[in-house]
Amino acid sequence: MRRYFGTDGIRRIANTELSPELVYRVAKAGAYVLSKHCNHTPTILIGRDTRISGTLIESAMVAGFLSYGANVKILGVIPTPGVAYLTKKLKADASVVISASHNTYEFNGVKYFSNKGMKIPDDIEEEIEEVMDSDKLTDFTAVNDKIGISEIRTDLLDEYVYFFRKNFEEDFEEYDKSDFVVAIDTANGATSVVAEKVFTALGIKHYILNNTPNGININDNCGSTHLDVLKKYVVENKCNLGIAYDGDGDRCLAVDENGNEIDGDKLIAVISNYLKEKGKLANNTIVSTVMSNLGLKKYAEKNNINIVQTKVGDRYVLEEMLKNGYNIGGEQSGHIIFLDYNPTGDGILTSLMFIKVMLEKKMKASDLCKIIKFYPQVLVNAKIKNDNKEKYNEDVEIKAKIDELEKEFADNGRILIRPSGTEPLIRVMIEGEDQNYIQTKAEELAKLIEKKLN
Q: I want to staple 79 with a disulfide (CB 3.0 to 4.6 A). Which of 67, 151, 190, 218 is the partner?
């Protein structure tokens, strides 16, 4: 079992659980593992979001990398996908993002990317952990002229802005945008430094919300995890669309002109349908996770599109896309990957793809989303002893209840039981046609699991 890395890098409370000492070891071990096969002095990029602890963690990471003998380019505040893009463009040997994504400000985290701009796989994270906890770290200490050098390269943010101009400017110049306006919620996070530049460059009229980070207001009742303010703003200001990013900018959710939420499943449906019409949906397939709404599967079947599902986590979506040559995949949370552009989720890219469909088709967001019908979905957490997370399938009574529900919802719904990757919880998810009924059934099963596994 891994000690440090979870489903999305290392994520802990900053300066206690995620101490500078731990970060130093993560940096030194990561520099070794990710660059041990290169025959030159490695270069590593570092980007971060707006958390108050960001510069503290950054300092410890820089020290670890330089101590190993790697050179470092410090990008400052920049969205996660911006770091991924620059890693490939600059041919860096690796990169790291300091962020806790959608979590509140007291958390922070470390996410590694390979030289291809992709999140590193599980086995590489495991190798980093092995080195961290071994005596090898002292062997990897650079001395004299082998010590690494760091440089501040916040100017490279402009390269990320150019990425969007290069891919969208020509098309957007052709569209009629005179009556189109969008509200953008940057969650007081990493997109606060770049979203306005991108939308201004593309000539899209916009209002910008929650764009004044102070180190502790990231994701604070704003962004993709808190849509209420954006929904109200869109309706009151008669916007065509509302867009919400998360703290590190790799997710995007939207709000239609009536204030209704457009989640990742709906975004995938609308954009994949557009790509299919254009003959650009690679292998006629979309990739989602097992947590996607049943409606996405029904949409795919109705429109003769193949759908492949993976376990939860955008890295597993990406692995499936790379393995079989697919170009769109993602999660309900708004973490969507467009492999023709960037090998990681990109909130700004996702929003521009959706806006492109709206402008080209001259359709309202609400009308575009009619292509997919959602099934009511409930998620109930069963709190259990952490050691019992994998034992629900071994209990006869729990297994019998799950089997009973699976048969009941076989035709018009589904049930999914999933242990949490980070907490002592088992998540019970049921989809069906009657919201109240599935809520009752999910709560019954969750209580049974709590009773038997505590």
A: 190
Residue 429 CA to residue 379 CA, distance in Å, equals 4
Q: Residue 449 and residue 442: Cα distance in Å, rounded?
A: 11
- CB-CB contact of 49 with 99 (8 Å): yes
Evaluate whether 75 touches 113 at the Cβ level (below 8 Å).
no
Nearest to 293 by CA among 379, 353, 228: 379
Question: Which amino acid, one-letter code, is at 203?
Answer: G
Total number of residues shown for the chain: 454
Dmax (CA) for the chain in angstroms is: 70
Give SS3 for 185: strand
Residue type, 247: G
Give all strands of the β-sheet with 377-383 in edge-to-edge order.
377-383, 425-431, 414-419
Give the per-residue pLDDT at 111.
Answer: 94
Q: Among the CATH numbers 3.40.50.720, 3.30.310.50, 3.40.630.10, 3.40.50.300, which is that of 377-452?
A: 3.30.310.50
Distances (CA, A) of 279 to 28, 140, 276, 323: 46, 50, 5, 21
What is the rounded distance in angstroms from the CA atom of residue 47 to the CA atom of residue 165?
Answer: 21
Q: For residues 350 and 241, give the distance between their C-alpha atoms in angstroms, rounded to a whole number.
A: 13
DSSP letters, 74-97, are EEEE--HHHHHHHHHHTT-SEEEE
Domain with CATH 3.40.120.10 in the chain: 10-157, 167-371
Arithmetic mean of pLDDT over the chain: 94
Spell out the CATH class of 10-157.
Answer: alpha beta
Active-site entry in 35, 53, 95, 101: 101
Contact by Cβ (8 Å): 310, 316: yes
List every span in the chain annotated with CATH 3.30.310.50: 377-452
pLDDT digits (tens, 9 = 90+) for 55-71: 999 999 999 999 999 99
- Closest by Cα among 304, 323, 305 to 315: 323
Q: What percent of the chain has pLDDT over 70?
A: 99
454 with 385: CB under 8 angstroms? yes
Query: From the DSSP assignment, how many helices (H) and strands (E) are in the chain?
Result: 14, 18
Task: Give the global pTM.
Answer: 0.91
Tell the CATH topology of 167-371. Alpha-D-Glucose-1,6-Bisphosphate; Chain A, domain 3 (3.40.120)
101 as an active site residue: the answer is: yes
